[in-house]
Design brief:
Blueprint lengths: L30 H26 L13 H10 L6 E3 L5 H6 L4 H8 L33 H27 L22 E6 L6 H13 L3 E7 L2 E2 L2 E2 L9 H5 L6 E6 L3 H16 L5 E6 L18 H8 L3 H11 L5 H22 L33 E2 L1 H15 L3 E5 L27 H5 L4 E3 L4 H13 L3 E5 L10 H8 L2 H4 L9 E6 L15 H4 L6 E3 L4 H13 L4 E6 L10 E2 L13 E4 L4 E5 L4 H12 L5 E5 L2 E3 L3 H11 L2 E8 L4 H12 L9 E5 L8 H7 L3 H12 L2
Parallel strand pairs: 1-2, 2-3, 3-7, 6-7, 9-10, 9-11, 11-12, 12-14, 13-14, 17-18, 17-20, 20-21
Antiparallel strand pairs: 4-5, 8-15, 13-19, 16-18
Helix pairs in contact: 1-2, 1-10, 1-11, 2-8, 4-11, 5-6, 5-14, 12-18, 14-15, 19-23
């Protein structure tokens, strides 16, 4: 409904009410359940009012209301199972969260930003609840990201069931391969479902459509509840959704039960949700309930809806308030009397005020804790182990492949997925063709070894890959998700920055996302062009909570990947395409127990005259430049960082204090690149140790071109490396 339009107080019939008796008794609920629904709706409204009052008193800092959404949420709360089902509510789901067990005082502690807020320790905004015990995954504000998380979490149960069948096949002698995992799979309920909700505005996001597509494709047990109050802040639904109805658009997806319901009516809401829940629990596929609700208050306390809604429209919505409508039903059918209603309201008001008084004295967070839990506080790998000696050299590609295979055999929680990573085990060509196994063949053979429940292809959708990985990780798996080229990672940026990287911190170490994103990166390809040759590691180093590694050789690739899989944090594992099969990047297999701590550099060449700090494909040119300069009597030390987030400052500073000169060399663009951060810190902390300015060498500030001469001009070459090092030595 747009501004300036008049609203009817009598909306048309919606699917859920057609042909069914309108009576509370017809729901089959006893009086206690009906009164529970009523108390829940009223209590949530009183909590909204209390938080508005506290906001005006400057005791809270933001308020967002669920007023008008109560009926559909209360019905959902009564039908679902906290601690067994999994929940991705959105920021208007106060009624729902109260109904499945979030304490009122905990909601207030969050809105007051107190240290004792169990959802986040004062880090999250109000109405972003989380609870490991209740299975409410900490909410996030970016619109629509939660849909993909729900899909990943729903997929976890089907993977666990397939893993049981796969293991039974091995025990029964149906396979020649015997796996001996050292850890067990996460527990799951056989009929568990995942609830995810959002406003109709969020259904305009691409992540919503990716989630709908994935849920349909995999026939996943997801209950989507869209609470349509016809406004995305101030933008009316007809400017958001083609035809003004998201349920109409979704009906064509296979396996979906799609229902449209009068969401401010408790009878319709309960009936439709009950059918939807039964559909999902029976394994028939996902369901979408499109609930027409009203937004009785502005979007939030920072919004003034009088600027875009007419008085008549707002008055018409107040006439649809679900709480008075439900009270009328309870009175008409004899479940409550007028005095009982007054008594219930008075008791609930007292309970809210008691919760306020309980929350107010609690302390604010200690400022010194602001950076706690950005990363896993437990350092899983502390020292680099000794690699096994001997054996023929293997390529960097083979090292990654072998490490994945060994770790997958050790830990059944590890899953590998992405575009083209599988061996076509669901294809009619299985016995005729070897399968792709990744565009670079890194994952070749893994699906045949471990089954298509652990190694599988995904649609082309980078946000879907990363968001799905989040949901699987929350549920206890360790996803290894491949983004085919770094150049194509950008649709997943929101999932990487705001979800994978932030969930440990925002949940105060309650939820984690131990995901490894394998991403081929870099140029020097001849013919790669601007869409297959990009380096952009510095951008991801700006994402707190995300670890970033870039090995330069096979041994380091094995040790860093093994650590990445075990560290408990999300890791961007960058694999330089140029190094996959290069002779100089080969090394003997370091063995199944070899690990390298993240954030520990390698001193790959000792020297006394200057320090070169580099990583990835530039390590070899830097070593060759150092050898060339040695013929001129110059002794250059070379450090391979290996990890970029965190990076090894101790190794860098120790070397520079010895050589008194520094050059930072990398493939990414020079301006605003990773070298800029290092150079700034060296100048800030080691100024008195320097005998020359810090030099930087990087790519030109231009995309990598297709034509070989242009690519050669953009990327640092050996002569550029020699000149950069000589420049700092001659200063």
């Amino acid at each position: 409904m747009g501004a300036g339009r008049e609203a009817s107080a009598n909306p048309p019939k919606i699917d859920g009410s057609l042909g069914e008796t309108r009576s509370l008794r017809s729901l089959g609920l006893d009086r206690a359940a009906l009164l529970k629904l009523y108390r829940l709706m009223v209590f949530a409204r009183l909590m909204d009012e209390a938080e508005v009052r506290l906001r005006r008193q400057q005791k809270t800092y933001f308020e967002i209301s669920c007023a008008g959404h109560e009926a559909i949420q209360a019905a959902a709360a009564l039908l679902l199972r906290p601690g067994r089902d999994w929940f991705y509510p959105y920021y208007r789901d106060r009624v729902f969260c109260l109904g499945i067990g979030v304490r009122p005082v905990d909601m207030l502690l969050q809105s007051m930003g107190r240290a004792t807020d169990p959802s986040s320790g004062g880090r999250e905004m109000p109405a972003h609840y989380g609870s490991r015990e209740l299975h409410i995954v900490n909410q996030s504000s970016p619109t629509g990201t939660q849909y993909l998380h729900a899909v990943g979490t729903a997929e976890a149960g089907s993977i666990a069931r397939a893993a049981e069948s796969h293991a039974a096949g091995h025990r029964n002698g149906n396979s020649g391969r015997v796996l001996a995992p050292e850890v067990s799979l996460p527990a799951f309920e056989r009929d568990e479902l995942v609830y995810v909700s959002g406003g109709e505005g969020s259904t305009s996001e691409g992540e919503f459509y990716e989630a709908i597509s994935l849920a349909s494709l995999r026939k996943l047990p997801v209950l989507f509840v869209i609470q349509d109050n016809e406004y995305a802040i101030s933008v009316p639904v007809e400017h958001q959704t083609p035809g003004g109805s998201i349920s109409t658009l979704v009906r064509s997806f296979p396996h979906f039960l799609v229902e449209k319901v009068n969401g401010f009516d408790i009878i319709d809401s309960f009936r439709v949700l009950r059918r939807a829940v039964a559909h999902v629990r029976a394994g028939r596929g996902p369901a979408l309930v499109h609930a027409r609700v009203v937004r009785l208050w502005p979007h939030s306390d920072s919004d003034d809806d009088r600027l875009y809604r007419t008085p008549a429209e707002r008055e018409a919505d107040r006439a649809r308030d679900p709480i008075p409508a439900y009270e009328d039903l309870l009175l008409e059918e004899g479940y409550l009397g007028v005095e009982e209603i007054r008594g219930i309201r008075a008791a609930l008001h007292k309970e809210v005020e008691e919760a306020v008084e309980e929350a107010l004295p609690d302390p604010f967070p200690d400022p010194s804790t602001a950076t706690f839990h950005v990363y896993n506080p437990r350092k899983v790998v502390e020292v680099e182990t000794e690699p096994e000696q001997g054996g023929p050299p293997i390529t960097l590609l083979e090292a990654i492949q072998r490490t994945l295979e060994l770790e997958m055999a050790r830990d059944p929680r590890i899953l590998v997925f992405g575009e083209d990573v599988a061996d076509l085990s669901r294809s009619k060509h299985l016995d005729l063709l070897p399968g792709k196994g990744g565009v670079f063949k890194v994952t070749h053979g893994l699906q045949r070894k471990f089954g298509d429940h652990r190694v599988f292809n995904t649609p082309i959708g980078e946000a879907g890959i990363a968001g799905r990985a989040f949901g699987l990780a929350v549920r206890g798996f360790i996803p290894v998700a491949e983004i085919q080229f770094l150049d194509y990672i950008w649709p997943a940026m929101q999932q990487i920055r705001n979800e994978l990287g932030m969930v440990r911190w925002r949940s105060n170490n309650v939820f984690t996302a131990p995901v490894v994103l394998r991403v081929p990166t870099g140029g020097y390809l001849t013919g790669g062009g601007p869409y297959h040759s990009q380096s952009a590691e510095a951008i991801f180093c700006h994402c707190p909570g995300l670890r970033i590694v870039l090995p330069s050789n096979a041994r380091d690739a094995a040790g860093l990947l093994r650590t990445a899989l075990r560290c408990g944090d999300p890791v961007l594992f960058l694999e330089h395409k140029h190094l996959y099969r290069r002779a100089h990047a080969r090394a003997p297999d370091p063995g199944p127990d070899y690990v390298i701590p993240l954030g520990v550099a390698a001193l790959v060449r000792k020297g006394t005259d200057a320090t070169v700090i580099t990583y990835g494909a530039l390590v070899d040119p830097c070593l060759r430049a150092a050898e060339a300069l040695e013929e001129e009597g110059l002794d250059v030390e070379v450090i391979d960082l290996r990890s970029l987030q965190p990076y090894d400052w101790d190794a860098v500073s120790t070397s520079i204090r010895k050589t008194n000169r520094a050059v930072v060399i990398h493939e990414d663009t020079r301006s605003f690149g990773f070298g800029a951060e290092l150079a700034a810190r060296i100048a800030e902390e080691l100024f008195s140790d320097l005998d020359a300015p810090v030099m930087r060498l990087g790519a030109l500030d231009a995309p990598v071109a297709y034509s070989p001469p242009l690519e050669h001009a953009v990327l640092p070459q050996l002569k550029d490396v020699v000149e950069a090092i000589r420049g700092v030595l001659e200063y």
